[in-house]
């Protein structure tokens, strides 16, 4: 079950809200939400809900053991607990991939292992990271150990962020699980955020997905370089609105039930560097790797070489986390190499040329070039994220081959379609934060001073209602509703 489905919008969500309101006391509310979350998970994974329940029970016991153990034994218990959780993730997500890589070596010694056919449990990458967050936080501060297994179960399985995040760290929501309240204002904000996310997903991401699949699933010989560039533009917009829209819906749902989740996106296509991009894209994942991998490895405290190595390890792990395939590793390592090069350049003498005080024009030019470099880098690396390694290289070759620019039916369908042009313009426009800068314009300030708050309020909620109505209309009339991160 996904949030952008009729089943969720008209049946599951209303039932969850009614039962949560009817429950009295924080323990009752948490119990209701836990049962609903397990039902939500069982809808898509009836068998693997047992794995979820086992994970809750096992990590409840492990957390208590870590909290009670002395420091030396606590570290051993923590290591064993992390090994158990990552071992489960490895089996379901990476075992087949690892065996395929090792098969030639094993075959040389006469071993021909059968590749296991295992269905990847939905959201296992996300909830495994949350479990590890809990275990490490308990090791650092035993007093925060969760003594109520139902409350821990809610943290691990809470349905708004179960399928695709944001990755919620335990120390961020520990107090909210124990005690929280909801208000009318928070409920309204939650509903607004959910509807905006729904609109991003249904009205934009789904449309871009159709165009991206039309181009990128077709034989390379059937389209030109311009068409290939347009297909990847569609994918770049699809993945942004798909994932950020789902994060908006998750954050909005959290508010409806009294939780404040961390932001997960901050207009990443405005970034001025790959470093800046990862401060804005999938923020909860970047924060998790920084706190639980980069800093424990030594961060930037052990010299430049070690810092660069730590960065490389983090981005290699980021690529592996996204999927068991070479193309994800290439994508992650590519970001890591660019991040390291940026660090080296920033520490060099060359960076001093762009001092904003002494050379403002040169500094502004640098900002423009930096944005273009970042967009181009992210755009090219999305090719590897979307496709296999070999097909990515062929697609990149096609994108620079302008020798056969012919107009075909597919070109006419995409390039000369009024709806397509409109959706692309809207998608590009709302990938950036230009409208928030309008408030700084003097004319707009004067309007605000002339008491147009009521008109602004009316326009805002009219737009939100319109987005909701159009989204429902699209869902009812079109079953095409893919979600990129559904199986991560």
Structure overview:
With 488 residues, the protein is mainly alpha-helical. Helix content is 70%, strand content 0%. The chain contains 19 helices and no strands. The protein has helices at residues 6-22, 26-44, 49-68, 71-108, 124-140, 149-157, 170-178, 184-216, 225-256, 274-280, 283-294, 304-322, 326-346, 360-386, 389-399, 409-415, 418-429, 442-449, 453-477. Helix 8 packs across helix 17 (418-429). The longest helix is centred in the first third of the chain and has 38 residues, at 71-108. It starts with 5 loop residues before the first helix and ends in an 11-residue tail after the last helix. The mean pLDDT is 84.
Main β-sheet: number of strands, strand sense, barrel status? none
E-strand count: 0
Q: What percent of residues are in strands? A: under 5%
Q: What's the Cα radius of gyration?
A: 24 Å
Care to give the gist of this entry?
The protein is an all-alpha fold and 488 residues long. It is built from 19 helices and no strands.
Itemize the secondary structure elements and their pairings:
Blueprint (H helix, E strand, L loop, with lengths): L5 H17 L3 H19 L4 H20 L2 H38 L15 H17 L8 H9 L12 H9 L5 H33 L8 H32 L17 H7 L2 H12 L9 H19 L3 H21 L13 H27 L2 H11 L9 H7 L2 H12 L12 H8 L3 H25 L11
Helix pairs in contact: 1-2, 2-6, 3-4, 3-5, 3-6, 4-5, 8-9, 8-17, 8-19, 9-14, 11-12, 12-13, 13-14, 14-15
């Amino acid at each position: 079950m996904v949030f952008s489905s009729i089943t969720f919008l008209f049946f599951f969500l209303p039932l969850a809200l009614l039962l949560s309101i009817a429950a009295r006391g924080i323990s009752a509310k948490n119990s209701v939400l836990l049962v609903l979350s397990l039902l939500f998970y069982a809808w898509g994974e009836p068998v693997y809900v047992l794995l979820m329940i086992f994970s809750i029970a096992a990590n409840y016991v492990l957390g208590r053991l870590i909290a009670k153990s002395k420091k030396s034994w606590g570290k051993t218990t923590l290591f064993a607990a992390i090994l158990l959780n990552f071992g489960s993730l490895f089996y379901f997500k990476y075992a087949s991939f690892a065996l395929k890589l090792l098969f030639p070596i094993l075959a040389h010694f006469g071993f021909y292992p059968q590749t296991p056919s295992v269905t990847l449990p939905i959201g296992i990458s996300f909830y495994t990271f949350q479990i590890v967050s809990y275990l490490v936080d308990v090791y650092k501060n035993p007093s925060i150990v969760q003594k109520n297994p139902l409350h821990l179960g809610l943290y691990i399985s809470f349905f708004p962020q179960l399928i695709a995040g944001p990755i919620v760290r335990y120390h961020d929501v520990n107090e909210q699980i124990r005690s929280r309240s909801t208000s009318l204002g928070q409920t309204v904000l939650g509903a607004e955020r959910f509807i905006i996310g729904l609109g991003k997903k249904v009205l934009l991401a789904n449309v871009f997905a159709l165009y991206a699949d039309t181009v990128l699933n077709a034989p390379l010989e059937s389209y030109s370089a311009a068409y290939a560039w347009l297909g990847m533009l569609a994918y770049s917009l699809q993945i942004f609105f798909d994932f950020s829209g789902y994060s908006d819906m998750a954050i909005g749902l959290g508010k409806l039930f009294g939780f404040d989740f961390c932001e997960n996106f901050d207009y990443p296509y405005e970034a001025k560097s790959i470093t800046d991009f990862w401060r804005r894209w999938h923020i909860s994942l970047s924060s998790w790797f920084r706190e639980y991998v980069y800093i424990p490895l030594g961060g930037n405290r052990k010299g430049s070489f070690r810092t660069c190595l730590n960065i490389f390890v983090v981005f290699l792990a980021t690529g592996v986390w996204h999927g068991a395939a070479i193309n994800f590793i290439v994508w992650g390592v590519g970001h890591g190499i660019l991040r390291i090069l940026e660090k080296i350049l920033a520490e060099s003498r060359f960076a001093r040329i762009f001092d904003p005080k002494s050379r403002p024009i040169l500094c502004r030019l640098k900002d423009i070039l930096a944005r273009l470099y970042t967009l181009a880098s992210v755009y090219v690396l999305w090719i590897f994220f979307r496709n296999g390694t070999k097909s990515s290289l062929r697609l990149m070759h096609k994108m620079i081959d302008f020798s056969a620019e012919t107009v075909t039916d597919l070109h006419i369908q995409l390039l000369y379609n009024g709806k397509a042009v409109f959706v692309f313009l809207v998608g590009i426009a709302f990938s950036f934060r230009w409208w928030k800068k309008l408030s700084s314009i003097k004319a707009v300030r004067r309007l605000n001073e002339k008491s147009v708050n009521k008109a602004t309020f009316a326009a805002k909620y009219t737009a939100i209602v319109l987005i909701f109505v159009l989204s429902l209309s699209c869902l009812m009339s079109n079953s095409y509703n893919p979600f990129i991160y559904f199986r991560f």
